[in-house]
Amino acid sequence: MPSYVIVGASRGLGLQFLRTLSADPSNVVVGTVRTPSSAPAIKNVHIVAADLTNPASLSAAAKQTAEITGGIVDHLIINGAYMAESTAFFGPKDFIGKEDTFRTELANSMDANVAGTLFAVNAFVPLVKESSIKKVVVISTGHADPQSVAVAKIKDAIPYALSKIAVNLLVKKLAIEYEGDGIAFLALSPGFVDTRTDEEGNLDPNVKAAYEMLTKIFQALKPDFNGPITPVESIEAQLEVIHGLKFEQSGEFLSHHGNTEWL
């Protein structure tokens, strides 16, 4: 009965991880959310409270998880992340006169995405050590690949991208730290995913326009690229990479294809 802990599972990719993994009754699935009372009820899923920016809550969640899983976590997947939508499409010049906004957004991004990742690992790693599988995956982004940014001329999402570059380096350092314990760490990009279309197929026109704009930008990386994939497609691909992860790959930054093709 393999166990999975999804840190940051209230919506989007985190929620889809829960739905996909819980479909196999042999899996033990735990999801952390800030507000458990608002989380959807999913069969074969245990919901516990935790906030990436609150180390004490993560420690409490790990303790509660240990009671659910028998003290073992096979797969720790850290999905939660922060990105401010109001400045998501700001380039460097757009922050002229908005320096305080930049400082705030960078601080928030680093706090949730970088510090939060470290706090989550520190809280749950004793349980991962008890596993025979020992895998820790941190969801990253192709925005953190400087070469792709240069080719596609992507100038926006600055605080978010900077924090994810830092996350990738943190993953490398964690791999070094826990090499002797046999834990495999991976920074994993989920691809360009449509997490905003609801179950009825509705999508905000502004978000749709943003998807179309990004699709054109990303065609510089992949000329035949025709738009975002669904959460189901992304999670299925990610799980294939996760399940195929070898210890020798610990510390790497890979895409949902298991390589460095981000789309």
List the helices and strands and how they pair.
Layout: E1 3-7, H1 12-22, E2 28-33, E3 45-49, H2 55-69, E4 75-78, H3 99-129, E5 135-139, H4 146-152, H5 158-177, E6 184-188, H6 205-218, H7 231-244, E7 252-254
Parallel strand pairs: 1-2, 1-4, 2-3, 4-5, 5-6, 6-7
Helix pairs in contact: 1-7, 2-3, 3-5
Jot down its keywords:
263 residues; alpha/beta; Rossmann fold; 7-stranded parallel beta sheet; 7 helices; globular
Number of helices: 7
Q: Could you list the spans in which at least 5 consecutive residues all have pLDDT below 50?
A: none
Number of domains: 1
Largest β sheet strand count, sense and barrel closure:
7 strands, parallel
Residues in helix, %: 40-55%
What portion of the residues fall into strands of 2 or more residues?
Answer: 5-15%
At the fold tier of CATH, the topology name is: Rossmann fold
Structural class: alpha/beta
Number of strands: 7
Compute the separation of the termini in Å.
32 Å
Name of the CATH homologous superfamily: NAD(P)-binding Rossmann-like Domain
Q: What form results from the Cα inertia axes?
A: globular
What integer value in Å does the Rg equal? 18 Å
The overall pLDDT average reads 96
The CATH level-2 architecture is identified as 3-Layer(aba) Sandwich
What order do the helices and strands follow?
Answer: EHEEHEHEHHEHHE
Describe the structure.
The protein is an alpha/beta fold and 263 residues long. It has a single domain (3-197, 229-254), classed as NAD(P)-binding Rossmann-like Domain (Rossmann fold, 3-Layer(aba) Sandwich), CATH 3.40.50. The chain has helices at residues 12-22, 55-69, 99-129, 146-152, 158-177, 205-218, 231-244, and strands at residues 3-7, 28-33, 45-49, 75-78, 135-139, 184-188, 252-254. A 7-stranded parallel beta sheet has the order 3-2-1-4-5-6-7, with helices on both faces. The longest helix has 31 residues, at 99-129. The mean pLDDT is 96.
